[in-house]
Amino acid sequence: MHVIDMALLLLILLTMFLQEHITSIEACNKLTPDFYSESCPQLEHIVQTVVKAAVLKETRMAASLMRLEFHDCFVSGCDGSLLLDDTANFIGEKTAKANIGSLRGYEVIDEIKAQLEIECPHTVSCADILALVARDSIVEVGGPTWTVEYGRRDSTTANLTLANLDLPSALISGPQLIQNFASKGFNLQQLVALSGGHTIGFARCAPIAPSLYGPLTDENSMNTAYHTFLEKACPNGSAPSLIPLDDGTPGKFDSSYYTKLLEGNGALHSDRIMIDESGRTVLEYVSLFAKDQECFFNDFAKAMVLMGRLQPLTGSEGQIRTNCHFVNPPSKLKTIPKTFNHKLPLRTPAADLHP
Question: What is the mean pLDDT of residues 97-101?
């Protein structure tokens, strides 16, 4: 009986130890707003200062910086893989058709990273920088704020094939767009709210041309006057013109984007399909956000927090890159990389979308 009691006691103690250990691991892997409160308390000040200067120099940069987080998180999660450059034996995601010739603002991330490596070396991940930069860039042009969670680590790999599959194309259909966002855990309301990011930014003619010259010329939601304007701005779809995605207030984050969509002034097919072919519920959310900017701001902020939680590397996974463009040298690698990320040397033509 004594032996049985001892065995039972040992089992109870072992169970308590395992529960405490598991709880500790879960706490370590959880994103939290105060992750850098002791290790890098100047993080938010540094990022805000650099972003403010960049947007003051060029208002359009706000949209460019915001897009970086979306294009990173939608491919294998928020792990900074988007920022990795190609090397002789590595192919990153920058050449994906939705990224090449389209994404910009990398130099702003570089400046922030350089300052952080001086202030608190080997501490702040590139993935966390992207999350904070997205918020601060939106705030700089009048948009909502939210509490950014930290604790992401950086991937040591990238996935070009997945980038070409998961990032929405200029020719995507309404049902495909809904499914694309649903696969990341976003409902219809969140899809429409995140699309409101197009209230700032610009597009070049290439992704607009299919709606002017085929194969998408049968759409009903573009009004005649706006169609004529786009034809003049994009003759044969080859002009280098920059077309505002919200021709009402392109440099201000507000609900004008939705108002313009309802008026038939949507530049991109991927925006207009919310009116044309995504169903009554989506149209109701477009109408709601057009009328109620506060509701749009609240839903957009909540959706951005959810985006920042997409499959982050945490704890001992990945690494903290010292240079966002490259994986750390072997001597600095202490990683458990994502098993589904691979170096896949697949190159495809680019969509020419510029925020």
Answer: 92
Q: State the chain's mean pLDDT as an integer.
A: 85
CA distance 168 to 295: 25
- Note if 71 is an active site residue: yes
CA contacts within 13 A on the Cβ side of 174: 16
Catalytic residue among 71, 198, 269, 354: 71
Average pLDDT over every residue of 172-198 = 94
Residue found under tokens 């501490």: 123
Which amino acid is present at 20? E
Domains of the chain: 43-166+307-332 (1.10.520.10), 174-303 (1.10.420.10)
Quote the pTM value. Answer: 0.84
Q: How many CB atoms lie within 10 A of CB 198?
A: 25
Which residue is associated with the tokens 């990273």? 113
pLDDT of 19 above 70: no
| DSSP assignment string, 37-85 | TTT-TTHHHHHHHHHHHHHHH-TTHHHHHHHHHHHHHTTTSSSSGGGPP
